[in-house]
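Hi L.,

You mentioned the student needs an example of a multi-chain input paired with its predicted structure. This one should do, with 734 residues in total across all chains.
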Amino acid sequence: MAGLKEYLVRRAITFIPTLLGVTLIVFIIANIIPADPARAWAGGERARPEIVERIKREYHLNDPWYVQYVFVMKGIISYFISPSHEGAIVDPLTSKYVFDNIFIRFPTTFQLALFAEIFILTIGIPLGLISALKRNTWIDTFVRFFALTGTSMPIFWFGYLMMWVFFSHLRWTSLAGVPLPRCYESGTCPVTTYIPIFDALVAGEYDIAMQIIRRFWLPGFVLGFRAAGVLARIVRNSFLDALSSDFIEFAKAKGLPKRWVWKHALKNAFVPVITVIGLQFGGLLGGAVITETVFGLPGIGRYAVNSINYLNMPAVIGVTLMFAFMYMLVNLMVDIVYSALDPRIRY
Amino acid sequence: MTLVSEEVYEKKILDKVTDRLVDSVAKVIDRFKPGWSIKNRSKIDEWKLMFYAFNRSPPGLIGAALILGFIAIGIFGPYFATYSYNSFLFIEHEETYLVPPWSTVVSKGKTFYFPLGTDKYGRDLLSLILYGARVSLVVSMIVIALGVPLGIVLGLVAGYFGGKIDEIIMRITDTFLAFPALILAIAFAAVLPERLRPMIIYNEQLKILLSIFFAADPKDAANFAPILSVILAIIIVWWPGYTRIIRGSVLSVRENLYVEAAKALGVSTWKILTKHILPNVISPVLVLITLDVGAVILVEAGLSFLGLGAQDPMVDWGKIVWDGAQYFPDRWWLVLFPGLATFLAVLGWNLVGDTLRDVLDPKTRRSIEFKVKKKKLATTSEEGGAS
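Structure written out for the whole complex:
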């Protein structure tokens, strides 16, 4: 697999201009605000002038924009390069490193996206396959309707409706706190992935795992609902395309068992499906902002919105960079899976 | 002169209505370009057929009805609202605080009827939703009217000229596409108002124009800035998708012989782009535009739910939900009705887009056309097979 390694290196190099462009865009955004961020960070109108002055000096706010940009970029890079985080960029409101703040909140968002993805795959793929097999029947119409409803649903509205049903009436979910495995505190986790549900399961703390599921299944469902219907439609269409292609006709004519015909069709149908799943993941990250707000989950989406409201630009730059990086990483993974599934695609 | 299609197909009332529509559009074009409708008879026939196919799809018709309703409410709703968005009845009539739907309130000798209840300021929810429709309509229309052409032009230029121009445009496009759109829109919508506010406040004409657009009091001019920034923010994140799609199609279309021929004949670049390339790459985008109107409404509602966009006292569907969410689920109407309005408006655009995809796609189109029953007329000869 020497080709793969080369390909990864090449892709990683193409990341760099895009990431630089991303920081530049965010930086332009940060420089649009005429309001004085230093004053806002120091506590608003009544902040003491010497403190405001000190913050301005620390963040190079009086310097021209390129000096500021270099300062911010240095702050980001040095967090990841030096083990002691010397010179890394600090969140002016919490006085912690920006990326520390992000990594504390990351597991919540990731876990939310994970639950959403589980719903998307377990609802979307079977529904799509069924509606392809029972084409033009009531179930096909239902899937079409389901997909349209999903894409038309304002996610916040759907969130409140589901909350009303499953929390206010049925009490099938909880809405407070974020349960963490006990072994985080005692430091006795056998493996630490920083994804609470995995760690809890591995450590055998099934009660905590149940609590996590109780807390996360509804937000995950709400977040995944939209994408599930769309995925079902995509699966249906590409499965139908594959079934009507020549090699399937040939396989049938050759008298292959049905199971084998299916295997060929599925393998070919899933190439476009994988791309859609990858692209949808980016949508999940965006949608997570609203879902986290509705369900009171302290993830990076909430952190982003709060930082924007306080003009906390170091944090905004960190968060957007993080989102862009994850988005690109998912795209890269999609490409790799793609080439593994489809031997015609060479990297 | 009768058109071919009129003799062949069995028509319902709706088909006659859409026939009229197409004919009158043709007449309008005729006025500017005499002789157009005779030259383009087959095109007019094609349009009519498309409408027949559309008319036979119940989801499409429901969608069209929802869209028409949304547009009508967006345009006329604010004028029919019983109360203004800034009539805070609660100040004088305490009984109007968070009144449930379908209730009549009698206070200080006055009788108020609130079909959908009131919010915490005693404002009539139905009126607020009518005002919110205007904001949604204006935002989505402006975003589509500015963002889509921007994306299309950049895509045309990048695809046609290639080389360095292509490289630069596509690098920028990729950078914008590297963000989840909502995150970038949030960032822009949050920082732009401070810049836009002075522009609006000190510009009387703009103030008046925007107050007509948003059906708002010019006194609230300071609050136009956040809505305007939402519009700008969505445009900024919306164009790259179109650029990428158009560029991809242009790359294949520009290799066609007819483009080569036009070049050899000395047709100007502008004319080649608009007359020869654009018509051939636009049709997949048409469906996308319809679907995107709904998507823009959703993004806008989401942004205003997060506290960006309309600010008090102005309203917007997302904002009504956010304000009402703190009383949820006891005061459910503040969340249910504005959310339902958003849902139905977006559903309308999606239904129409979904149907249009089938109608415009030559593969599925034929199968729909077969459903349009042909009249068996003994007198019609071979002509009957035309379509």
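You could point out the following to them. The two ends of chain A are 11 Å apart (CA to CA). The mean pLDDT of chain A is 84.

Best wishes,
N.
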